[in-house]
Automatic annotation (TrEMBL):
This is Protease HtpX homolog. Its EC number is 3.4.24.-. Zn(2+) binds at H140, H144, E215. Binds 1 zinc ion per subunit. It is found in: Cell membrane. The active site is at E141. Belongs to the peptidase M48B family. Its cofactor is Zn(2+). It comes from Streptomyces marokkonensis. The chain crosses the membrane at residues 12-34, 40-57, 150-171, 186-207. CDD domains: M48B_HtpX_like (cd07327).
Amino acid sequence: MRSRFEPDRQLTARMAVTMFLLGLVYVAFIAALIVLLESVVVVVVIACGLLLAQFWYSDRIALYAMRGRLVTAEEQPELHGVVDRLCATADMPKPRVAVSAMDLPNAFATGRNADHAVVCVTTGLLRRLETEELESVLAHELSHVAHRDVAVITIASFLGVIAGLVVRFAFYSQLFGGRSRDQNTAAVLALVMAVSALVYAISFLLIRALSRYRELAADRAGAMLTGKPSVLASALTKVSRDVARIPTQDLRTAQAFNAFFFTPALGPGTAVAHLFSTHPSLERRLEALAELSAELGEPGGGAAP
């Protein structure tokens, strides 16, 4: 999809490499499932069916999990007005607009392509941000749609989820399954569990590395579209600060969708944990926005809030 969002060749290259590597891992993973289930047809049909379902219904799944609902322009005129202006500026199709009844201040975009995309904001975000800040956050989310990285992350995330489920399946089938628990069977199940765990670890690291870069790319593209990096930095600072005040139980409920959020529901905490984070650190994002602000000659640019 062509739009006026600044293209990012590095993001495109990283997405291509990530999907290629995950594709190789996925082939090996299917082979491991064939060993476990002893049926090529069943495994391929189930795997392809689950992948297509995840890809085709990703927007519905995300909205249901986050208690989001589509809203009309009559219900949310200001929100729709901001999205309309941004889409006109970016020369891109307008996605559907949704609101999630959560106090957690956040936003996300999902959907298999630009024509089936959804941009969702929480009531907590709408209550906390000024109109310019909301515009900057939505520009960030729309850039994900324009760059097509929403679909890539959706597909990439699927593999890790299935691998984790297979580990559990193999474990419980070994404990309670109807197969004879001889040494050969135990060895096969142990091997499949090991392969599944390895697949999960590889996909986890690849997705995290891609996700961190795509957030920086979306920050830059969104700020370039609005021409106000400092406003996006202000929104980012405000949201990150207020997320820390949300009850931990509510944060953990939303944490499964961290890769899609504007800011993570739970921060990385330590330097080691940052390696497994879906987002760059707040400091890194503010630093990049400050550099862009200075580059654009924005009044007061060069100093992160």
